[in-house]
Design brief:
The protein has two domains: 1-189, no CATH class; 202-396, Carbamoyltransferase, C-terminal domain (DHBP synthase), CATH 3.90.870. The chain is 30% helix and 18% strand. The protein contains eleven helices and 18 strands. It has helices spanning 52-56, 78-93, 101-127, 144-151, 169-182, 220-228, 261-269, 286-289, 296-299, 338-351, 372-380, and strands at 3-7, 15-19, 24-28, 46-48, 65-66, 69-71, 133-137, 158-161, 213-217, 233-236, 250-254, 278-282, 306-307, 326-327, 330-332, 355-360, 386-389, 392-396. The strands form five sheets. An eight-stranded mixed β-sheet has the order 9-18-17-10-11-16-12-15, with helices on both faces. The chain has a three-stranded parallel β-sheet with strand order 1-7-8. The protein has a three-stranded antiparallel β-sheet with strand order 4-6-5, with no helix packed on it. Strand 2 and strand 3 form a beta hairpin. Helix 3 runs parallel beside helix 4 and helix 6 (220-228) crosses helix 10 (338-351). The longest helix is centred in the N-terminal third of the chain and has 27 residues, at 101-127. The protein is globular.
Length: 397
């Protein structure tokens, strides 16, 4: 099998947005870093190169330019310049001209970014016309919208994105390279999971304050029933995930079909309102709910975005993006993650919904839950209603 492998580190193709005190910085880097300028140019605006000719005709621009952007002096009238720039940039580069400048810039930067990556991928396809399968790595491909654009290309049969696509994956890649040199017959293999972190020590279960918590034996049917009632579950099993996605080892689980779920979980985790939640779906039922026939393997690591079938969009609102009706689904395979699969299956038997809302077990901006003590703190603070840790269920007294 021939595979087109593409790796783009995030810092090499970053599009970042800064909106603070009349400063907007749109930075588009390719091969060269933007060099430092004189100290008095602390407040500046960097524009994509396609807008330069228009702006030169209307505003004073430093003669000192760099490869992909131009520095403008801070003396230019901010509002007039930004208004004209927005209209020109959207007309020339693409996107829609909306009134909300911050959201506009982020939205249109995403569109331009996607187009540039698609141009790159199609360009490589022209060089290697017989290749139908694409493997992607680098922090850029944490951006699931661009992953979907690649997956939707007619000539692509299958896409795989490295589960640890960012810098955290360098350690894993280095280990595989070292192993390939130490073991001459080392060959590529199917990655079944990324549960490479630490796990709860047995001794931790003997240090629990029983005056604070009720402890019960684990029962997946009971947990599924509690989720169906609207309870939010903290779920810990085995070693935690390597990479940016929660895959059922350190997860928060909730009902995807209740109208109250999104706000309840979002508020508890102190997340931004625009951040969608992801579903974990039984592999046997994925194609009933999502258009996921293509690139299902990478979906096991929650690195692909799928369209939701119309008949399901209103049934599972907590995990479907309200605008484009997509979902960053994790496809759960029984043989690879049996304990997690069983909870979802029990929930399916009770509700007819073959998936759960799954998000990482941490409040926004905080480290992932690692120890039993971490999990109990979330239970005690009301982040979750019930904690499952290995073969025990914990409830707050």
């Amino acid at each position: 099998m021939k595979i087109l492998s593409i790796s783009i580190p995030q810092h090499d193709t970053s599009i970042s947005l800064l909106d603070k005190d009349k400063i907007i910085c749109l930075e588009e880097e390719r091969h060269n870093r933007i060099r430092s300028y004189k100290n008095h140019h602390n407040n500046f605006i960097i524009f994509p190169n396609k807008s330069i000719n228009y702006l030169k005709s209307k505003y004073y621009i430093n003669d000192d330019t760099i490869d992909n952007s131009t520095l403008l002096t801070p003396e230019i009238e901010y509002h007039e310049m930004v208004r004209d720039f927005y209209k020109n940039w959207f007309d020339v580069v693409g996107g829609n001209y909306w009134k909300n400048r911050v959201n506009d810039l982020a939205y249109n930067a995403q569109l331009v970014f996607e187009d540039q990556v698609i141009n790159l991928v199609n360009g490589l396809k022209n060089k290697f016309p017989n290749v139908k399968n694409v493997a992607l790595s680098g922090g850029v491909f944490a951006n699931i919208k661009v992953n979907k654009r690649i997956n939707d290309l007619d000539w692509v049969n299958e896409v795989f994105i490295a589960p640890s696509m960012g810098d955290e994956g360098l350690s894993l890649g280095s280990a595989y390279i070292a192993k390939s040199k130490l073991i001459p017959d080392f060959k590529p293999f199917e990655l079944k999971n990324v549960f490479f972190g630490s796990q709860i020590e047995e001794s931790e279960f003997y240090e629990i304050d029983t005056n604070k918590f009720i402890i019960k034996e684990y029962n997946p049917e009971e947990i599924a029933e509690q989720i169906s009632y609207g309870k939010v579950i903290g779920f810990i099993q085995g070693k935690y995930e390597h990479g940016p996605r929660a895959l059922g080892a350190r997860s928060i689980l909730a009902h995807p079909g209740l109208d109250s779920t999104y706000k309840k979980v979002n508020d508890r985790l102190k997340r931004n309102d625009f951040m969608p939640f992801a579903p974990s779906v039984l592999s046997e039922k994925c194609e009933e709910v999502f258009y996921c026939k293509k690139s299902k393997y990478t979906g096991e690591f929650m690195t692909m975005l799928y369209d939701t079938k119309e008949e399901w969009q209103n049934i599972i609102p907590a995990v479907v993006h309200p605008i484009d009706k997509t979902a960053r689904a994790q496809i759960v395979v029984k043989e690879k993650n049996p304990k997690y699969w069983e909870i979802i299956n029990q929930f399916y038997q009770k509700t007819g919904i073959p998936l759960l809302l799954n998000t990482s077990f941490n409040t926004h901006g905080e480290p992932i839950v690692r120890t039993l003590e971490d999990g109990l703190k979330h239970l005690n603070n009301g982040i979750v209603d019930i904690l499952v840790a290995e073969n025990k269920i914990f409830l707050k007294k």
